[in-house]
Sequence to fold (154 residues):
Amino acid sequence: MPTNAEELMATSVLKLLAEDAEGLGIIASAVQDSLVKPEGLKLDGRSRTFGLEINRFQWERAGKRIPFFRSRAMLAFAGVQNVRSRAVSRDIDAVHSLIDVRFAPDGEAPAGVITLIFAGETQIQLTVECIDVTLLDIGSAWPTRRKPDHEKRA
Fold:
């Protein structure tokens, strides 16, 4: 058991890989309530990848009381053939809250569409060859006093 705040903040480094809908569901749970700015959305057409630099709320460590934790993470999608978006702000100060990540088969398996659903009307749809998703914490966790509250959102 960690003995001080520095040790506690550094103890959680998450790395998940998904190659099917079940694995994507696990990643979706881990990134729920992540925050992303528009400049944190990156498409690399050459390597056919789409990535999000997110501030991930660490649900796996969340108890009923503070401290809660967030960490910087990268959510990456490979085999991206097309990207469509709706209501993604270009405002440099905008922050989008990621609510869910869903997969729907489209055409011949294992191809499909991955939809990133954010609070409000914002969505990003990725047409993919298959599910090939990586989630990786890329920095130490930091404490936060705020825990996302879905009851207040409704």
